[in-house]
Design a protein that fits this description.
By secondary structure, the protein is an alpha+beta fold. The protein is built from two helices and five strands; from the N terminus they run E-E-E-E-H-H-E. Strands 4-3-2-1-5 form a five-stranded antiparallel beta sheet, with no helix packed on it. The radius of gyration is 16 Å and the shape is flat. The mean pLDDT is 83.
């Protein structure tokens, strides 16, 4: 049985039909790790069902993860879709705003 770890810090990002949860958690020995959860609302038999995908990211992999993510984003922005308007401020202020998690863990 998986033991639920204490949430140290959380952020929720609403992005259209998806919601992303970034949660910092601690192990029993006070080692920290990050979980990234994508939640999508689907309907099955006219009832809402939340489909979730979770990634566990450990501190020794933080730098490699951030570097690879940055390279991939740069590739799309600079090489694949250079003419796109990446107005992050507009997106941030609307659909993609990050917000503190209210400890409702029913995602």
């Amino acid at each position: 049985m998986e033991e639920r770890r204490e949430e140290i810090f959380s952020r929720k990002v609403r992005a259209g039909k998806r919601t992303y949860f970034f949660d910092v958690k601690a192990t029993r020995s006070n080692d920290y790790y990050l979980t990234i959860t994508e939640s999508k609302k689907r309907f099955k038999d006219d009832q809402p069902v939340f489909e979730k995908h979770k990634i566990f990211l450990y501190k020794e992999d933080f730098e490699k993860f951030v570097d690879a993510l940055g390279e991939c984003v740069d590739k799309v922005k600079n090489d694949l879709l250079p003419d796109e308007d990446y107005d992050y401020k507009e997106s941030y202020n609307n659909d993609f705003k990050s917000e503190p998690l209210d400890n409702d863990l029913s995602y």
